[in-house]
Design a protein that fits this description.
The protein has two domains: about 180 residues, Vaccinia Virus protein VP39 (Rossmann fold); about 80 residues, DNA polymerase, domain 1. Helix content is about 40%, strand content about 15%. It has 13 helices and seven strands.
Length: about 280
């Protein structure tokens, strides 16, 4: 939904914009194409590989700068009311998913890392081998919305008594032994997602960045958020409507009656986009 993102984000071609999740630079590239010469784009990412991509690929464009930081630190780098648009893409990039050493994928054998910033924090391996059964159940149920959360948690506890769980294959084997395969979706999808969200504190970071976006946006500025499952989308929707738990210093109104979703053609080109939900809001007070 790159075209929809850019068209909804850019309200002034000479304005200032933020790409909160640079990734491999796909959105940043299209934003720069749409902007005029006086515009500016600040990209954020906590993955050092993304920082290298940004510096290498966009180094000659004076309108662009990239900062290694959590996107929840947005207002540490931008003045209040200084930005015309903020883009937050909550998905994991294909480069991260396809690198077996990152541990995000249940398809490729690799270490259980799952940290977006590999320079800090505990790995998925450390968490899954130390968490209590109750903690495992809560994460799988609440973050993964996994029906078989109790059975999987119990199997993990039994397995690690004999041998530590160290690889993506170890975890996949445990999940496959606990639940049937009833659809095209891999049985380990929800468990991997839940652990990744826990390791990276993704919901906590999401609450923070929404609050921060409200501070740095100008009146009339756009907030554009792409989420990939119901928990994230519910937080974004409630924030925009002023119904969430976040203490908003500003007000937003939704742009458009309904969130945007990828077309069948886009899903065919990029199956990973099938669960994407795009919400747009304008800062009004």
């Amino acid at each position: 939904m790159v075209e929809e993102v850019v068209n909804n984000l850019i309200v002034d071609k000479n304005g200032g914009y933020v790409d909160c999740t640079f990734g491999t630079g796909g959105h940043s590239l299209e934003i720069l194409k749409k902007m005029d010469t006086k515009g500016s784009l600040t990209a954020l990412d906590k993955d050092i590989q993304s920082i290298h991509i940004g510096k290498d690929f966009f180094s000659s464009d004076k309108r662009f700068k990239i900062i290694k930081t959590n996107f929840s630190n947005l207002s540490n780098h931008l003045e209040p009311g200084s930005v015309d648009g903020v883009l937050i893409d909550l998905g994991i990039s294909s480069k991260q998913l396809d690198d077996p050493n990152r541990g995000f994928s249940f398809i490729k054998l690799g270490p259980l890392d799952m940290r977006i910033d590999q320079s800090e924090g505990a790995t998925a391996e450390k968490w899954i081998n130390r968490a209590t059964k109750k903690e495992l159940e809560e994460v799988f149920k609440e973050l993964g919305e996994e029906r078989y959360y109790q059975k999987i948690a119990m199997s993990i506890c039994k397995r690690r008594q004999k041998k530590s769980i160290t690889s993506t294959q170890d975890l996949v084997d445990i999940v496959l032994a606990c639940k049937p395969r009833k659809s095209k979706r891999h049985p380990a999808t929800k468990v991997f997602r839940a652990i990744r969200m826990k390791v990276n504190q993704e919901l906590i970071e999401l609450h923070k960045v929404l609050y921060e976006a409200g501070k740095v946006l100008k009146f009339g500025g756009r907030l554009v958020v792409i989420s990939f499952h119901s928990i994230e989308d519910r937080i974004v929707k409630r924030f925009i409507l002023g119904k969430g738990k976040i203490d908003r210093p500003v007000k937003f109104k939704p742009v458009g009656k309904n969130p945007l979703k990828p077309t069948k053609e886009e899903i065919n080109r990029n199956p990973r986009s099938r669960s994407a939900i795009l919400r747009v809001a304008e800062k009004v007070a």
